[in-house]
Every structure is written in structure tokens, then in C-alpha cells.
Specification:
Elements (H helix, E strand, L loop, with lengths): L3 E6 L3 H12 L4 E5 L5 H6 L1 H18 L19 H25 L3 E4 L2 E3 L5 E3 L2 E3 L1 E6 L3 E3 L12 E2 L1 H4 L8 E5 L3 H12 L3 E5 L13 H14 L2 E3 L3 E2 L3 E2 L4 E7 L2 E7 L1 E4 L3 E3 L33 E3 L10 H15 L14 E3 L4 E6 L2 H6 L4 E7 L4 H6 L5 E7 L4 E8 L2 H14 L3 H6 L9 H8 L9
Parallel strand pairs: 1-2, 1-7, 2-3, 7-19, 9-17, 10-11, 10-17, 11-12
Antiparallel strand pairs: 4-5, 5-6, 8-18, 13-15, 14-15, 15-16, 20-21, 21-24, 22-23, 23-24
Helix pairs in contact: 1-8, 3-4, 3-6
The structure holds flavin-adenine dinucleotide and adenosine monophosphate (AMP).
């Protein structure tokens, strides 16, 4: 007797999206979660990290209120961060979202089973020795922070994003190891709230060396450096040594070696899939030597019939919204429908640093490497009225298009780039011509006019460009 249509292992964005979408299509679903529903994203990732970034935004705004003609009635007019209160606020947001998600799962009649799910060799899921029978299984066990030997996290001196997203205290001096998306976001927060911040990245470039168009990465690095982040690219760090006052961290760069003393080291060198010890290989589910579950991305099916995998545990972009999209593909496959697979070359990417970085599609370098003859037009936010009004004129819109052809990639850095991406994501995926997008009206005054101007420039004419 089969109890469920689908049993999902892991209740993060991948797993809970599969459960909610599957239940909305009439499937009977069990969701096995060993910790809190919401996974990394809600509990110790996207949501708390963005709450801290918003605090940094308020901090900047408050301390620059005088620029807008707003002065304190009394006092010095400078503001400080109360990280205990920040942490309380973050916890409040997380609790509301986790509570809302739990309610939604209940209303959709998804059975949430608490415990660690493992696969048995016959392809069933077992939780604490109890087998849960289902026609299909979805693996959505997600990922966890990677560590470096000698940098084992203790949650106080050496930490990962798991700790920093929920901490109630701020270090005075911090070294962030890794300048990828997570490291850059934390460096941005720390710098803006007055923490003495050093960023050490193994690759040349220093900030976001992999992923975005490098013109954007350089613009972000310049902005962070101007605000006080000490960035060391091409850096080899040695394990920290504890001292009476903190920790000493030695590092080497092509220009020489140096040491810094810090109170905390945040290790942000990437994330590894959670797949070890869960019986995957024994159940016939192929796993790569780096621990990713191998899938056919047309269906998200693993090598074992009836078992699917989605989210960070598969080797696709480690983003919550990619996990959502993969959940829909897996459920449609289970329903016997023909899903539209995720086009991984055109997913939306956002880095919520100050300034924000957002893109979809090919970078200039990728487009050239793919052999396209390309045209590029850019528009700087320094020429945009709304950017001046909100006091954030750093950044630009950069459009990469095939010569006399469709848009291949859109790259944004600047105010609300995260929200501006939506139109551009659509244009890239619709394979629109830049002049088609340029012919649409963008409201005035708005940040989106920068996009309209960059698109219009492809016609050889312009308004304010
Ligand atoms: P996870 O969210 O990791 O969830 C997996 C779940 O499975 C966990 O709850 C875990 O407890 C559970 N689990 C694991 N093994 C078992 C088992 N054997 N039995 C039962 N349960 C199990 N992405 C974005 O798109 N936007 C962002 O702004 C963003 N910011 C981020 C900021 C930080 C600091 C971090 C760390 C990540 C961020 N991400 C962001 C990435 C995002 O969090 C992940 O891509 C997303 O959480 C992946 O979802 P998932 O369901 O695959 O895995
Ligand atoms: P992401 O995968 O986006 O979280 O980025 C992780 C970043 O950490 C990448 O830019 C890596 O190059 C960087 N990185 C990995 N290992 C190290 C290391 N040992 N020291 C410094 N940076 C590292």
C-alpha cells in the first residue's frame, strides 16, 4: 500500500516548493525535514542576509540624512547599529515567514515529518527507521558552508554564514574569506555599519571573480574600497592564530605577504551539497565526486527511476528561485506532463550588496567566447534623475546583444538593480530585440529609464544618452 504520491527529503526552497506545487496539483505529499522548514534560505540565508543588508541601507541613509536637509533636533546626528535589535528584527521576519510556510503546508495537507530522511537500497525513504512508502521521491537536501582546514568554525571567532546571519553581536574587526556572492554581501554590510573589514579572495579580481560581467565586479569592488573595505585579491590565507586580543591572519598576495589582526574570521568560500551518508549511492542514485546528485535537467530525474533531485544538491546555480523552478519541473515530470526545463544560461542573478548587482544571460566575455558578433550599449545611473533624487548615482546598465539581433545579456549595477532585473530577465528570455524594448515607455522619473535609454541606443538614436 502506497501512502503518498511523493515523499520529499528536505524542506528548503526546493523541497517546500515541490510540496506546495505538487499538493496544488492534487498529489499526496510527505515532506521530511530534519531542522526547520524554510531551509537555508529562510532560516540562515537569503532572508536574514537581506534583512541585514536593509539595516545597512537604513544606517547609510540615517547617517547621510543631512544631505537631504534632514537634521536631528538634538545630539550629534550620527547613528550607531544595535546588532541585538537587528538580530531580533531578523528573527521576527524569519519566524513570520517560517510560520506562514508551515500554515501553507498544513492548508495544502502536506504531511511534514520531522527527522532525518535516508534512502534505503530499495529506493524508499526511511526516517528514524520508519519507512515512508511513496510512488516517487524528491531529494532536496540542499547545501552547507564549505570549510578550509585550520578554519573550522566555532561560531564565535571563526564563523560561517550560518552564524553571521543570526548573530546578535558585531565584531569590531573582521576578515571575510571569499569574495563570492555571500562574502561580498557580508563585506558590504560590515563595511557600511562601521566594522573594520578585510576581504581576502583566492582569485584575481577580488570581488565576484566568477559570475557577473567583470565590469560590474570592478565597479562593486571600487565602491566597497571607497567605503573602506580592504580588498586583497589573489590571496593565500594561512589558518588564524589566536592572540590575547583576537586572531592574527597571515596571507600572501603576488605583491608580498602580510598579517592582520581581527576579532572574527568569516569563512565564505562557497557551499557543498548535503548528500553524504544518506544512502544515495546504495539506492542507485549517482552522485559526483564532489557530492552533487546527477540529474537529467529535462525532468530532474536521477539515475534511479522514480527518484528526482532539485535545488542546491544538484550542480545547477545555487539559488532559491532556481530550486523553485526545478521543483516545478520535477513535479510536472512525476505528473507525466512535459515540463519546460530551466534554461540555466538565462536565470536571474542578484547580489544584494551596496550597490546591488543583477544580471541575466551572457556577459560580454561569455558572448564573445560563444562566437557571437556583439553590440554593447551602456547607460550610467549618474545621468538618471531618479538616481540623483535618491542619492545613489554609482553604477550602470550594460546591454549585450547580438549584432542586429536579440539581447543576449543584461547587466545592472546600481540602486534597486534587484527590482530592475525583472523587465530585463523577461527581455533576455523572450529573446527580444533591444529596439523592441526601447520602444516601450519607461515612466519618468524612474530608475528604469536607464534601461530604456540603453536599449534605445541600439537604434543609433537616443534621448538623453
Ligand atoms: P536548503 O535551503 O539548504 O534546504 C535543505 C533542507 O533540507 C534543510 O532545511 C535541511 O535541514 C534539510 N535536510 C538536509 N538533509 C536532510 C535529511 N537527510 N533529512 C531531512 N531533512 C534534511 N539564494 C537566492 O536565490 N537569493 C539570495 O538572496 C540568497 N542569499 C543567500 C544568502 C546566504 C547567506 C546563503 C547561505 C544562501 C543564499 N542563497 C540565496 C542560496 C539559497 O539559500 C539556496 O540556493 C537555497 O536555500 C537552496 O534551497 P534547497 O531547498 O536546495 O536547500
Ligand atoms: P561563492 O561560491 O559565490 O560563494 O564564492 C566563493 C568564493 O570564495 C569564490 O570567489 C572563491 O574563489 C573563493 N574562495 C574559495 N576558496 C578560497 C580560499 N581558500 N581563500 C579565499 N577565497 C577562496
Amino acid at each position: 500500500m502506497t501512502d503518498y504520491d511523493v515523499v520529499v527529503i528536505g524542506g528548503g526552497p526546493g523541497g517546500y516548493a515541490a510540496a506546495l506545487y505538487g499538493a496544488s496539483a492534487g498529489l499526496r505529499i510527505a515532506l521530511v525535514e530534519g531542522d526547520a522548514v524554510g531551509g537555508t534560505c529562510l532560516n540562515r540565508g537569503c532572508i536574514p542576509a537581506k534583512a541585514q543588508l536593509q539595516t545597512a541601507e537604513v544606517f547609510r541613509t540615517a547617517n547621510h540624512a543631512g544631505d537631504f536637509g534632514i537634521n536631528p533636533v538634538d545630539g550629534s546626528g550620527t547613528f550607531s547599529a544595535d546588532w541585538g535589535k537587528v538580530s531580533e528584527r531578523t528573527t521576527g521576519i524569519v519566524d513570520r515567514l517560517v510560520g506562514g510556510l508551515s500554515g501553507l503546508l498544513k492548508r495544502r495537507k502536506v504531511e511534514v515529518i520531522r527527522g532525518r530522511g535516508v534512502l534505503t537500497p530499495n529506493g524508499e525513504v526511511s526516517v528514524d527507521g520508519q519507512a515512508i512508502a511513496a510512488k516517487s521521491v524528491i531529494i532536496a537536501t540542499g547545501s552547507e558552508p564549505k570549510s578550509i582546514p585550520g578554519f573550522e568554525a566555532d561560531g564565535e571567532r571563526v564563523v560561517t554564514s550560518d552564524h553571521s546571519t543570526r548573530s546578535g553581536t558585531l565584531p569590531k574587526r573582521v576578515a571575510v574569506i571569499g569574495g563570492g556572492v555571500i562574502g561580498a554581501e557580508f563585506a558590504s554590510v560590515f563595511t557600511d555599519v562601521g566594522v573594520d573589514t578585510t576581504l581576502l579572495e583566492a582569485l584575481p579580481g577580488g570581488v565576484l571573480p566568477i559570475g557577473p560581467d567583470q565590469e560590474l565586479a570592478r565597479t562593486l569592488a571600487k565602491s566597497l574600497a571607497a567605503r573602506g573595505t580592504k580588498i586583497h585579491a589573489d590571496a593565500r590565507v594561512s589558518p588564524p592564530e589566536r592572540t590575547a586580543n583576537g586572531m592574527v591572519l597571515a596571507y600572501e598576495t603576488p605583491t608580498g605577504s602580510d598579517k592582520i589582526e581581527v576579532d572574527q574570521v568569516l569563512v565564505a568560500i562557497g557551499r557543498a551539497p548535503v548528500s553524504a551518508g544518506l544512502g544515495f549511492a546504495e539506492a542507485g542514485v549517482e552522485v559526483t565526486d564532489r557530492g552533487f546528485v546527477v540529474v537529467d535537467t529535462n525532468t530532474m530525474a536521477t539515475s534511479r527511476p522514480g527518484i528526482y533531485a532539485i535545488g542546491d544538491v544538484v550542480e545547477t546555480p545555487g539559488l532559491a528561485h532556481v530550486a523553485y523552478a526545478e521543483a516545478i519541473v520535477a513535479i510536472k515530470s512525476i505528473l507525466g506532463e512535459t515540463p519546460v526545463p530551466v534554461d540555466y544560461t538565462r536565470v536571474p542573478w542578484v547580489v544584494y550588496t551596496h550597490p546591488e548587482v543583477a544580471w541575466a544571460g551572457l556577459t560580454e566575455a561569455e558572448a564573445k567566447e560563444a562566437g557571437f558578433e556583439i553590440d554593447i550599449h551602456k547607460y550610467k545611473f549618474s545621468g538618471n534623475g531618479r538616481a540623483m533624487i535618491i542619492g545613489e548615482t554609482d553604477g550602470l546598465v550594460k546591454i549585450v546583444a547580438q549584432k542586429n539581433g536579440p539581447i543576449l545579456g543584461v547587466h545592472l549595477i546600481g540602486p534597486w538593480a534587484s527590482e530592475l532585473l525583472a523587465e530585463n530577465y523577461l527581455a533576455v528570455n523572450w529573446q527580444a530585440l533591444p529596439e523592441e524594448v526601447g520602444a516601450f515607455i519607461h515612466p519618468h522619473p524612474s530608475l528604469s529609464e536607464a534601461v530604456g535609454e540603453a536599449m534605445l541606443a541600439f537604434t543609433g538614436r537616443s534621448l538623453h544618452g
